[in-house]
Write a sequence for this structure.
């Protein structure tokens, strides 16, 4: 059974409609990529799941239960955690304090805690008393991922992890994602970087102008089909 589903999910910013009926499923243990051009609605989709935007009560389901009416903090408690675009760390806090913020309202069951996050990103342990503003972009991304993991999520929603990072750093972040997956955490991975997204995804959805324009297993999707679904050409 799907751990997370959306059914005909719509989302608005005021009068502006950003999502037009997105139907989606994430199986237990799966990594699913969401690709698409800038403005396609990828971040909006993650924010709507996470409870950061209004959505219909029955449009989002976790384990078959409607969660569309719940506020963001309840969604975290149920095991869905967002790594937001741009990392959004607390700049006045240290690495460890940022991680501990993520433990607020955590689920009691699951593999993630300070020790396992530090095993995943040993560099963060070395720098645990450092202010988050003194970190490189890649290190900040590790803190953002670690902070989300601290809630012990069943589903991790990742928004543009690789944005603005050097290739070698992206490689490390993606290696960590593989580890996260082996721990049983299901992952939704939003990326503009097709190559990286497709390399780790079990399945992918392409968004165009607020709709799913293509979906399938990466090896079943031809370059031409992806190109057409991505750019609408
Ligand atoms: N806070 C906002 N207010 C108004 N419109 C927004 C806001 N955030 C995003 N949008 C619009 O919603 C659409 C989808 O944006 P977004 O989900 O951020 O796309 P993506 O993450 O795929 O680049 C875009 O047209 C964007 O301009
Ligand atoms: Mg975005």
């Amino acid at each position: 059974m799907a751990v997370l589903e959306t059914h005909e999910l719509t989302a608005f910013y005021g009068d502006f409609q950003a999502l037009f009926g997105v139907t989606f499923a994430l199986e237990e243990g799966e990594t699913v990529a969401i690709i698409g051009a800038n403005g396609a609605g990828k971040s909006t989709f993650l924010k709507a799941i996470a409870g950061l935007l209004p959505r219909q009560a029955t449009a989002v389901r976790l384990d078959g239960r409607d969660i569309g009416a719940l506020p963001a903090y309840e969604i975290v408690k149920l095991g869905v955690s967002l790594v937001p675009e741009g990392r959004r760390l607390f700049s006045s806090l240290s690495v460890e304090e940022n991680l501990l913020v993520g433990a607020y309202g955590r689920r009691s069951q699951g593999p993630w805690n300070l020790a396992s996050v530090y095993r995943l990103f040993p560099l963060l342990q070395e720098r645990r008393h450092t202010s988050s503003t003194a970190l490189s972009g890649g290190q900040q991304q590790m803190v953002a991922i670690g902070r989300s993991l601290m809630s012990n999520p069943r589903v991790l929603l990742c928004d543009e992890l690789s944005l603005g990072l050097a290739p070698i750093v992206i490689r490390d972040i993606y290696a960590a994602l593989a580890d996260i997956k082996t721990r049983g955490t299901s992952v939704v991975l939003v990326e503009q970087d097709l190559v990286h997204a497709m390399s780790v995804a079990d399945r992918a959805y392409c968004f165009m102008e607020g709709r799913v324009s293509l979906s399938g297993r990466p090896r079943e999707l031809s370059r031409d089909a992806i190109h057409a679904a991505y750019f609408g050409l």
Q: What stands out?
A: The chain has a mean pLDDT of 92. Residues 167-182 form the longest helix (16 residues). Residues 13, 16, 18, 36, 38-44 surround adenosine-5'-diphosphate (ligand 1) (CB under 6 Å). Residues 2-231 form a domain with the Rossmann fold fold (CATH 3.40.50.300).
